[in-house]
User: What shape does this take?
Amino acid sequence: MIVTEARSWIGTPYRHRASLKHVGCDCLGLVTGVWEALYGELPEEAPPYAPDWAEAGRGEPLAEAAARHLIQRPGSEIAAGDVLIFRWRPNVAAKHLAIATGPATMIHAHDGASVAEVGISPMWRRKLAYRFAFPGAAD
Assistant: This one.
């Protein structure tokens, strides 16, 4: 169910702070769009954020928000349906999200491209900071 919904977003153009399937979304908009398809209304509204928000040194706001509504998964074994949060650089907040479609693939949105399913390369594995599961949803 999670992967099917995430795949239905493939081809959606990147649009900062958007979450409209086939119209535009960013990485957070992809995950919140899948949440809305699974559960309906979002449990909290995303605060306004600029593209460089995580460089401001304010802890781990994305991971903290995820921990309020998703189930943190231990270990490093990626499973279909996991929400993956990546850290671009050491000592900077994790700020990129994706949804795993299997142990070696994910769907994500990033600036300059449409939502796509890609391989989880060694570079992505090195940057993986957190894994969460949608509560009560199976894939």
Notes: Residues 27-39 form the longest helix (13 residues). The helical segments are 2-7, 27-39, 61-69, 122-127. The chain has a mean pLDDT of 91. The domain at 2-44+56-133 is CATH 3.90.1720.10 (endopeptidase fold (from Nostoc punctiforme)).
